[in-house]
Amino acid sequence: MTITEQRPETDQETEKTPFEILLDAGKEHGYKLDWLRKGESFGQKLEADLTKGGLLLQDIEQGREDEIPEHSENYTGRPRGAIERVGAPRIGDYKIRNKGDVWLRNAADLYEEAIQRQWSSATDIPWDTLQPLPDDIEMAQCDLATFLTDVEFVAGDVPGKWIAETSPDFYEPRMFLISQIMDEARHLDVFRKRALANGGALMQQSRAFGGSFSGGIDNARDFTEMSARLHISGEGLVLTIFRMGERMSYNDAEKHIYRLAASDESRHVAFGVLHLKYLSEVQPERKEEIHNYLDEVEQGLVFSTGSSQNPLARGGISGNSLAILLGGGADKMEEGEQIAMAMRQRQIKEYIQRVRVAGFGERFENGRAMPILQQYIAA
Questions:
Q1: In Å, how far are 229, 292, 364 from 353, measured between CA atoms?
Q2: Residue 97: CB partners within 8 Å, gap ≥ 6?
Q3: Would you say residue 333 has pLDDT above 60?
Q4: How far apart are alpha carbons 329 and 138 in whole angstroms?
Q5: SS3 call for 71
Q6: Reported pTM
Q7: 150-171, pLDDT tens digit by residue?
Q8: Percent of the chain with pLDDT over 90
Q9: Which residues on neighbouring strands pair with residue 166, listed in sequence order?
C-alpha cells in the first residue's frame, strides 16, 4: 500500500494552510503572528510598464490599497490599505477627513513628476556665467530676487500645516504638498543666492507681508480656500513672472533659474486647478462658497498695490525693478513699464483660464467677476 492510500480521506479536508500552521506554532511559543494574514492583493503580479518612468505610485494601487474612502475615521496614521490593528493609539487629530476637501484625480502623477524633476541650485545653475552688471540692473535683480524669496517663503510655509491636518487615507495630496515644500525651499535658496552671488545684496522686504496676500492665505478657513488663494492666484501670478524670466535675464544663470522654477511652479498651480475641478464636480453645492473665495482673490488682484498679489503695480518696489529689467535700465523705465503692463495682462488672462479649467468660468460670463477683469477676456 502506498503512502497516499494510507492517508484517511478526511485528512485532505482538515489539512491546515501554511498560515494556520504558523499561527499555531507561534501560539505554542508565545508569539502572536496575526500580522502575517495576507491582504487581498497579496500574490497579485503588478502590471506596470517599468520602461516608462519606472515603478510609479499609481502602478501599485490595487485591491484594498486603492479603496479611497469618502470619509476617513483613521486617526492612527495607518497607511491606506493596511489591516487595522485593534487598540492602536491615535497619533493625529486630522481635521481633513472628507475626501472632497483635499482630493484631486492626478495627485500621484504630480508627485511622481515632482520627485523625478528635482534639481539643485548648487550644481544645475551655471553660476560661472554671472558677469558684472550696471548698478541699476544689478540692484533691480537683487530687488526682484528679494521679492521672490519673500513670496516663496509663504508658498513653502503655508502648506505645511495642512499636511498634518490631512488623514493618511488621502496620502497622495499629502505627499505632493511635501514635494511642494521641497520645491519652495529650493526656490528660496536659489533666489537668495542670486541676490548675493554677483556682488549685490538682499533689498527691502516686500510689502506683501502683513497684507492681503500672506494674511489671506495663512488665515484660510479650510484647505480649499488656502489652495484657491495660494495655487490658483498667488503662485499662478508668480508663474507668469517665471515664464517671462528670460525676457529680464542678463545671463544663462538667470535663464536657468527661471526655467527650472517655472517647471516646479506649474505643478503647484496644476494641483490647485485640479483640486477645484474635482470639488466642483463632486460637491457642486460648494460652488458658491468657492466663488466667494475667488471674489476676495480678485479684489486682491485689482487693489493690492505693491503686494505679491499685484507685483507689477506702478509704484510698487518690485514694479519699478521689473520696469528697469524689462526696459534695459533705469533710463528706459517707460519702455519697461509698457512691457510690464503686457505681463500684467498675461497674468490676468492666465488666471481667468485657470478658473475656467477648474469649473468656475461662469463668473466671467454672468458678471460675477470684477468688471475691471472683463476687459482682459476679449483682449
A1: 15, 18, 10
A2: 71, 72, 73, 167
A3: yes
A4: 10
A5: strand
A6: 0.83
A7: 889 889 999 998 999 999 999 9
A8: 59
A9: 96
